[in-house]
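Continuing the batch. This is chain 6 of the set; chains 1 through 5 are on the previous pages. Same settings as before, nothing changed between runs. Recording input and output for traceability.
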Amino acid sequence: MTGARILTAVVLIPIVVSLVLWGPTWLVAVVVAGIILLALHEFFAIGAKMNMPGYPRFTMLCALGIVWAMSSGTYTIWYSGMTRIPVLFRFLLATREFYLAFFLIGMAGLALATKKGVAAALPSAAVSAAGLAFIAWPLSYLVNLHASSPIKLLFVLVVVWVGDTAAFFVGRSMGKRLLAPTISPKKTWEGAVANVLGSLLAGAVFYACELAPASTTLLIHFLVAAVLVSVAGQMGDLLESTWKRGAEVKDSGSLLPGHGGILDRIDALLLAAPVAFWYFSLMAVGP
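Output for chain 6:
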């Protein structure tokens, strides 16, 4: 299992890093959209095992709209020649709020139109809302991070990867005190601490390798961001584990050998991506 885990990482990491550093934001948005669709597919499959199937197709449609709106500059390319489309309508199509309102109206319509009755439709609507809020909305911030600076997105990914790796090996070899036994029996406090320390180290090394000129203030910001990303990432991991625990499944899927499903691999980003984006934005952190 460890060998498959390492091999998968060796194959995927260079591809992801190349995309982040040299790929245009619209291409990153396309990849993020694909990841969101796969993650939502796994999310709804788990829900179906708990007799809460949701409305996957409509939710996925709204998720694509949110990614579209979050991809800074992408919609401008497509709309630049569409002079016959009213400006207000073009603006609405390029805002997250439009797709959120569209989702809420659609959920109400689906609940009222179902043959099972409104009471039976409410759990499905709740699952769909959870999928949009827990997966589509936060992961779309990956596009914002890249549009702001590819370095910022790479920073988040590196911190999450190093933190997860440190937690995995330290928790496996030294872990004794269980972190959340009812949710994830294998997670330990030792692994959680290793995640934070590994993230701090990754943040410091990343800063030293990628950023110039040197700035003590910027270094502090990156270290604080590394801790926030680590903690948020572990919380996202536990939230995903809670969902799987309800259906009594170990992995969300089997697409990635050694890692499980897509949702298993990106669960840390569910909270880490928006936390990092808003920290960098509110603190006006470069580059």
